[in-house]
Design brief:
This protein is of the alpha/beta class. It has eight helices and seven strands.
């Protein structure tokens, strides 16, 4: 019956033996992505300490024609599937007496990324002779991924909260998200041009609507967590 139902809307339906198998398929797919994102985020942390460009490393590894699937680091996990489903699986397996070690470790690493971004912003400002406290920090993109309005589990909220608690004066631009609340305060999306007045701009979500060339020209300092400025060379840019 389930196969017949889904066939009304989908071109290709893959039947499995039970609803339990179908649910585990979805959990496996999301857990696979979450763990691999955790791996590449850990790689980003290591490369940062060793002064290596993690984006160049990934691009070069991706030239291998087999055995490697590129995943990319970022400011943290967002959405309603990848940050949640693996932990449901971990909870469920504990009921069966099994410890999901990969899931828990990847979750810990992914959970550290907003802190890493906040530290990156603080260090970039320090290098420019400015403290975080009192600095105007403008966030580009707050949805959990590119070109959508979904804010569920968005890492931008964690990054902004961490920066606010360090004393930053926050603003943001997102063509898909007109208003957000950070630490009990409502903020309204501002035009991209307002980023020029900031002491530091942080690209958290790389919406295609942003004019990145203009952003780099006008900004004093840019921390890029998504490699949105790939191919743009400037001493203003600090990459993840």
């Amino acid at each position: 019956m389930g196969e017949l139902f889904y066939a009304q809307a989908l071109e290709h339906v893959v039947p499995v033996s039970s609803t339990q198998v179908a649910e585990m398929v979805k959990l496996l797919e999301n857990t696979f992505r979450m763990i691999n994102i955790g791996l590449v985020n850990e790689m980003a942390l290591m490369c940062d300490r060793m002064g290596i460009d993690v984006w160049e490393v990934i691009d070069a590894a991706a030239t291998k024609p087999f055995g490697f699937m590129p995943f990319y680091p970022g400011p943290g996990l967002g959405g309603h599937c990848i940050p949640i489903d693996p932990f449901y699986l971990s909870w469920k397996t504990r009921q069966a007496g099994i410890e999901a070690r990969f899931i828990e470790l990847a979750g810990y690493i992914n959970g550290q990324m907003p802190q890493f971004v906040a530290d990156k912003v603080q260090n970039a400002l320090n290098d420019a002779g400015k403290p975080v406290k009192g600095s105007r920090i403008h966030v580009m993109g707050v949805a959990y991924k590119r070109d959508i309005s979904d804010m569920r589990e968005s890492p931008a909220l964690d990054v902004m909260l961490l920066l606010k608690r360090r004393g930053a004066v926050l603003s943001y631009s997102d063509p898909h998200v007109p208003v957000i609340r950070v630490d009990g305060i409502d903020l309204e999306s501002a035009p991209q041009e307002s980023a020029a007045a900031a002491d530091c701009v942080v690209i958290v979500t790389d919406h295609s609507a942003f004019d990145y060339q203009a952003l780099v020209r006008r900004a004093c300092l840019v921390v890029d967590t998504r490699n949105a400025l790939k191919g743009i060379n400037s001493n203003k840019i600090v990459r993840l």
